[in-house]
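Fill-in record for Gfo/Idh/MocA family protein.
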Amino acid sequence: MTVRWGIAATGRMAAAFASDLALVPEAELAFVGSRDADRAAEFAGRFGAAGSGTYRDLLDAGVDVLYVATPHPQHHALALAAIERGTPLLVEKAFTATLAGAHEVVEAARAAEVFCMEAMWTRFQPALVAARELVASGAIGDPVLVQADFGAHRDFDPSSRLFDLALGGGSVLDLGVYPISLAQHFLGRPDRVVATGTTYPNGADASAAIHLAHDDGRAAALACSLSAATPGAAVVVGTEGSLELRPPFHHPEQLVLRRGDAGPEVHEHPATGRGYTHQADEVHRCLEAGLTESPVMPLEDTLDVMWVLEECLRQLGVPMAEAAVEV
């Protein structure tokens, strides 16, 4: 059965996802929407979509599932409008710009029994699937610590989406969401968050060092930055060993298992395409099974991550708000 996808937005993430969607069996890019109908038409032509138009046109197109790839603050309005129409959703991370906005979307999706999932593609990479299985099998004992960093050098440009607070700019929402989600995945929601960092002249966060503490002593040491590249490394440390996600950890293809005095075990797990195929596969699987949430990326996990993100931004003094979108 063909699953007809719609894509909201025409930027870099939308293009990456559209390229991989062509590799997913039974997936069809049916419609592209944008604030600019001409840009939507160009994108549709580039990726072979049957239709294009405004966001309103997209919402009324009757697609089977909608992928929202707009800037973070615009996710909220588009997701609520899609849920109102009963359209299943895959929403880019960070899920929304605020925790309150995330709660609104989650509550609406659950009340309407409409499928909704955050597009945290890392969780569906074959290497992460294998990492999850290794940890669950007790290969490293009980997980007690996660270390992860994600930094990229970008020249400060206040007109760029990456640095514009009105568009959800800053390192925490764009890059910090990855290590935070990884820590949440293996350790669950922390009890306390401590964040320190630097900001740009316009108030957007340039870098952040994040400590997630659990009352039982487990913890995560995380970092993100838009001012400098970092190794992109991640390690899950357990009571009997450790598991390294070889850089870049947000789409790794190698795992390194270390236990006791034994030498490191290297496990290879290549992805299909650029790696976005696997989250699309999960959406198809959930829709076919009649699920309204993914068991791998449940909405409660998304809310936990959004709580940490908001705590980080609050402590850094970075304001964030949802945006109005004409739908």
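KEY FINDING: Residues 126-268 form a domain with the Dihydrodipicolinate Reductase; domain 2 fold (CATH 3.30.360.10).
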